[in-house]
Amino acid sequence: MVTLLIADDHPLYRDALKGALSLTLPELEIREAGDLTSTVGILEQEDVDLLLLDLHMPGSHDLFGLLHIRKLFPELPVAVVSGTEDPVIISKIVGVGALGFIPKTASSGDIASAVQAILGGDIWLPASVSEKLEDVDEQFSELADKVASLTPSQYKVLCFMRDGLLNKQIGYNLDIAEATVKAHVTAIFKKLGINNRTQAVLIASQLELEPPSSAGH
After folding, report:
1. Which residues belong to any copy of the Response regulatory domain (predicted)?
2. 78 DSSP 8-state letter
3. pTM of the full predicted structure?
4. What is the domain extent for residue 161?
């Protein structure tokens, strides 16, 4: 039995995806998760053959969810499902280790083809974007490796730093002490090999997944 995990915070989309896969690939055993924490929990407890990951579910900010899971489970095949089809974003997703990208507008047939291809060891991308992908440079790959070493809490702090919040404001938003925020900031600087907030903002900005003209989910 092949086990597939759908990690998406929209129950209606999970149900639609389950329905499409059940019709075309009835031999699949399907699990579900609605946030990054529960996704990791299932992956730690069960043998999952393929993860379909929504990068915008709770805990999975920008590229962090994918990077975090790739760090914890490097042998696990991961395909990203998303509402955006921006080639630059898809290039980054594939560049950091995803084996596929499935648009949320994909037909049942395309979804089944993607799952079968990835389970067979291939990379699957929609024909509309496969010729538009760009190579991810080595510097971005090294940056992604460093960010993958952050904890989810540290990445949240990094995102708030990117948004211009001070330590006190970050502590208020995360309901933690300012001293705890400072400890996170120190750890972030050390892991990323930087020494100021400006550098942190630049790094976090490179990991954003929203194209300039839209905010696709």
Report:
1. 3-119
2. E
3. 0.81
4. 150-207
